[in-house]
Amino acid sequence: LTMAAQRGIGTRLLSTSSVLMVGQREKRTSRQSWSYMSEVIGQATLGGRHIRMGAGEILKVMDLCAASAAMKHVQHQRTPTLAFDRLELLVPICHGDLVHMDARVINVGTSALGVQVVGRKKDLRTRHWYYTHEAFATFVSLGPDGKPSTVPELVLETEEEVKSQEYAKKRVELARRYAREQAAFDSRPIDRSELEFKKIRGIEYMHIEDTVVRLRKNFLPRSLNGLGTIFGGDLMEWMEGAAIVCARNFTRNSNVVTIAMDNLFFMKPILPTHMLELTARVVYC
Hints:
This protein is α+β, with helices and mostly antiparallel strands and 285 residues long. Helices cover 27% and strands 25% of the residues. The protein contains five helices and 13 strands.
């Protein structure tokens, strides 16, 4: 089944071509890249206790599922993660939940691929599947020499796939605009007066630098992907863990959970020989 069929969306066939050749560039359908993962997530022994999963562990599984779709489209394993677009986790996923994730390629460039990941979990009481989260991940295809390589073009077979591609292109443009605005903001001189909190009677306040959490580590070989670099899912799990500790320290509340992630970019490959330093801070409340 295609994702459109699984989501109950009617499909109308626009093209029957599956693998075509135009010059030296192949064409493949979104349906051919479809991949899924279905598993009992977290620790099964904690099932039924309604203990919420950490967002980092969910991101890790999503990255694996998305990478599987990207590899099916390009027909090789040299597809590192470049970025993850906004992700919302508004529906709790708990240890022991049966979770199903679908992924498919919905947009391609010359060497980059956009993959949509949709997650659901099964409610034990109703035995129905419920939508839990969705994200858009970007991967790049590398050749044997480690340089970007051309990916097959994408054949859109249904109206739903056409709309999904248009949606993906809009999200890519929004991410680029966000990156430009962030770079412009980061390059301006810091006015220390802007960082001061207004003192309001009865309300505790902290300086931004007092919220900082710093971590330092290197990753073991078990975290390597097929390219010999650190798997993006492990990096996202580490980052989310630092962010949640930062938020809990700030609020003095151990019940703080992650509900969203916005525009994560992998700027450089990470090797197991690299020592990584991570800084998390509260910037808005």
